[in-house]
Amino acid sequence: MVELMLTIAVAAVLIAVAAPSFTSLRFSQSLTTQANEMLWVINFVRSEAIRRNRPVTLCRSSSEASTACVTANGVWRYWIVLANGSVIRRGVIPEKNGLSQSSTLTADSLVIGADGLTRTNNTLVNNQYLEIIAPISAVEKNARRVVLGAGSRINIQKLSLQQ
């Protein structure tokens, strides 16, 4: 009986130590997954713009069924890809795990021209970003930025942000 109680006590200590690490791993994976999805979407928009030989837009929308971009900045929940005024792709940013997403793009919209260059408000994008944030206590580096650099270079940065 003593051995059983000792085994249970050791198991409880191991679980207490492992649980925070597992939660941190889960949040980190969710952040990475969402950042990679947005990177994929931007690359999709670029390939469609070049393939169609005309500008294609990625923007935040107000609902899952919306066919128009919102005209002001805010928290991203839904996004759409527009070509010739028609929606060619749409997506939902999951609210699971308390993740939120915002951007520094003008009116939360970017346009990629047939030349493959990214613009917002008719200006070439340089060091603007989409930012995905998890709660501070969830993981040490609680944010991922999909940074749109000069020449339409894209990279993902891991950051520690205070909310």
Number of domains: 1
Report the strand count.
10
Low-confidence runs: none
The helix/strand series, from N terminus to C terminus, equals HEEEEEEEEEE
* Structural class label: alpha+beta
CATH class: Alpha Beta
CATH superfamily: minor pseudopilin epsh domain
Fraction of residues in helix: 25-40%
Pfam families: GspH
Family: Belongs to the GSP H family.
Subcellular location: Cell inner membrane
Organism: Thiothrix fructosivorans
What does this structure look like?
The chain has a single domain, classed as minor pseudopilin epsh domain (minor pseudopilin epsh fold, 3-Layer(bab) Sandwich). It has one helix spanning 2-52, and strands at residues 56-61, 78-83, 86-92, 100-103, 109-112, 118-120, 123-124, 128-133, 143-148, 154-159. Strands 3-2-1-5-6-7 form a six-stranded antiparallel beta sheet, with helices on one face. Strands 4-8-9-10 form a four-stranded antiparallel beta sheet, covered by helices on one side. By secondary structure, it is of the alpha+beta class. The protein is built from one helix and ten strands, in the order H-E-E-E-E-E-E-E-E-E-E. One of its GO terms (cellular component) is plasma membrane. It is found in: Cell inner membrane. This is Type II secretion system protein H.
Question: Nutshell version of this structure?
Answer:
The chain is α+β, with helices and mostly antiparallel strands and 163 residues long. 31% of the residues lie in helices and 31% in strands. The radius of gyration is 20 Å and the shape is elongated.
